[in-house]
Amino acid sequence: MTEFWKRFSKHRGAVAGLVILFLIVLLAVLAPFLFPKSPWAMVQRPFLPPFENATYFLGTDTMGRDLASGLAHGAYVSLLVGLVSTVVSLLIGIPIGALAGYFGGIVDDVLMRFTELFQSVPSFALAVVLVAIFQPSITSIVVAIAIVSWPPVARLLRGEVMSLKSRDFVDAAVLSGQRSFTIIWRQILPNTLSPIIVLASMMVAAAILVESALSFMGLGDANVMSWGYIIGAGRTVIRQAWWVSFFPGVAILLTVLALNLVGEGLNDALNPRLSRKGRQA
């Protein structure tokens, strides 16, 4: 663990990203305590400019709702959707990729053709269609993002498993009489954790962007406040009240940037040899 942190801390951008991500998570956790009122509540006159009122320091939106409260409560929704959809994507993609890579042959052909079927449709367009079919809600958004996000996981795992199944420790497990699924679970998958963790950090960022885009288009959950919804609500008055779209846009930018920086740091820490080769090249 000490060596991992030493390698991770050498990437200054990753440390900065980790700090930003920690502050955003802290804001999401403390949102109900910092802003006990509902983010939907009308608390002031509409279009109150930022930094003119100590209580509502980020101003208000078109309906007189506290923008700071909306950002804090929206952080929870964005992070929740990003994390849950990524976990679901991993639960779909990891088994498919592991089975295709280990067994090969007809199993590989069938599973990879199935994967390519999902990749043949633009992911965002498919997400829009799925959310529209199942009615906009947090659950439908999570399911839609997971369905369009798992193919890269499957392809990554397939390649990793194909390179690992010819190693000596796998041959030893086969000779000792272990079953194929036991070998995959106990011998191969633990050795694929590094690329999975790195990919997962990037997938959370991508999921947050997709959720924000869906909410911006009016396909978000109408019962929860989200950053995309706030931007969408302020797009028609951007000249009159720029802050309504600006602050949630900055929040999305910082969150996605932080996750990508952390992903790069994890890649350097978990795969130091690959990182050195990349720099030398």
TrEMBL record:
<dbReference type="GO" id="GO:0015833">
    <property type="term" value="P:peptide transport"/>
</dbReference>
<dbReference type="Pfam" id="PF00528">
    <property type="entry name" value="BPD_transp_1"/>
</dbReference>
<feature type="transmembrane region" description="Helical">
    <location>
        <begin position="75"/>
        <end position="103"/>
    </location>
</feature>
<keyword id="KW-0472">Membrane</keyword>
<protein>
    <submittedName>
        <fullName>Peptide/nickel transport system permease protein</fullName>
    </submittedName>
</protein>
<dbReference type="InterPro" id="IPR025966">
    <property type="entry name" value="OppC_N"/>
</dbReference>
<feature type="transmembrane region" description="Helical">
    <location>
        <begin position="12"/>
        <end position="35"/>
    </location>
</feature>
<dbReference type="InterPro" id="IPR000515">
    <property type="entry name" value="MetI-like"/>
</dbReference>
<dbReference type="Pfam" id="PF12911">
    <property type="entry name" value="OppC_N"/>
</dbReference>
<dbReference type="GO" id="GO:0015031">
    <property type="term" value="P:protein transport"/>
</dbReference>
<feature type="domain" description="ABC transmembrane type-1">
    <location>
        <begin position="75"/>
        <end position="263"/>
    </location>
</feature>
<keyword id="KW-1133">Transmembrane helix</keyword>
<feature type="transmembrane region" description="Helical">
    <location>
        <begin position="124"/>
        <end position="150"/>
    </location>
</feature>
<keyword id="KW-0653">Protein transport</keyword>
<keyword id="KW-0571">Peptide transport</keyword>
<comment type="similarity">
    <text>Belongs to the binding-protein-dependent transport system permease family.</text>
</comment>
<dbReference type="GO" id="GO:0055085">
    <property type="term" value="P:transmembrane transport"/>
</dbReference>
<keyword id="KW-0813">Transport</keyword>
<dbReference type="GO" id="GO:0005886">
    <property type="term" value="C:plasma membrane"/>
</dbReference>
<dbReference type="InterPro" id="IPR050366">
    <property type="entry name" value="BP-dependent_transpt_permease"/>
</dbReference>
<dbReference type="InterPro" id="IPR035906">
    <property type="entry name" value="MetI-like_sf"/>
</dbReference>
<keyword id="KW-0812">Transmembrane</keyword>
<feature type="transmembrane region" description="Helical">
    <location>
        <begin position="196"/>
        <end position="220"/>
    </location>
</feature>
<feature type="transmembrane region" description="Helical">
    <location>
        <begin position="241"/>
        <end position="262"/>
    </location>
</feature>
<keyword id="KW-1003">Cell membrane</keyword>
